[in-house]
Amino acid sequence: MALQLGDVAPDFTAPTADGEIRFYDWLGDSWGVLFYHPADFTPVCTTELGAVAALAQEFARRNTRVAAVSVDSADDHRAWAADIAETQGHSVEFPMIADVDRAVSELYGMIHPNASDTSTVRSVFVIGPDKRIKLTLTYPASTGRNFAEILRVIDSLQLTAEYKVATPADWRDGEDVIITPAVGDAEAAERFPGYRTLKPYLRCTVAPSRA
Ligand code: BEZ
After folding, report:
1. 57 with 139, same domain?
2. Would residue 52 count as lying in a domain?
3. Does residue 185 share a domain with residue 137?
4. Does 211 have pLDDT greater than 90?
């Protein structure tokens, strides 16, 4: 069965463009983003890895480690990384996992035969420090992902892991948040002084500051 939210992200050891990765050891206590792409030397994927490389500091600021996976070889990853740097203007400094035997892709259910028998789908996993899967997304091969959205979700995940709040549609870090329904009004008044009630089930507050 496909990996679902809350499942433990499988651990693995695999080659990368820059040596072996032991996934859990590499993650440590950080958040993680494992993103699959269909193939090296393809146009959309080239822009995606360039986009992630450009956001390296944003991921680091969120204590989040990022790794890319495809079934291409480490040699191909290294050669393609040069193309990415040349065309996208940013060097890939994160691990590019070379899953030639598809072991990691099978673990994560990333070969979808109705899409392709031979390559991985365009999926993202966000993994919490508890090694559990917090988000999955799968895009068609023809559509590049919006990695600013992945950062936005990580902001929400990190905030809502710490406080009894949820984030509304199109929320961005720093904007007002929603008090979760499990919090009664008395507790809400204590935790979120000055909160606003639009409906009994829709109560808003300024975002609690993150520790
Ligand atoms: C691309 O990255 O452009 C791509 C990869 C696989 C299939 C189609 C497009």
Report:
1. yes
2. yes
3. no
4. no
Q: Look up the CATH number of the domain holding residue 79.
A: 3.40.30.10
Residues labelled catalytic: 45
67 and 19 co-located in one domain:
yes
Give the global pTM.
0.96
Residue of 44, 139, 145 to test ligand 1 pocket, by largest number of atoms within 8 Å of CB: 44
> Mutation test of ligand 1: which of 47, 116, 142, 145 has the most ligand atoms closer than 8 Å to its C-beta?
142
- The single residue listed with the structure tokens 């979808």 is 112
User: 3-class DSSP state for residue 32?
Assistant: strand
pLDDT, average across residues 187-210: 95
Same domain for 121 and 169: no
From the list 37, 56, 61, 211, the residue with the least C-alpha distance to 141 is 37
Per-residue confidence (pLDDT) for residue 209, from 0 to 100: 78
- The number of distinct structural domains making up the chain is 2
What number does the ligand 1 atom closest to the CA of 119 have?
A: 6
Element (H, E) at 45: helix 43-54
Residue 1 is predicted with a pLDDT of 77
pLDDT higher than 50, residue 210: yes
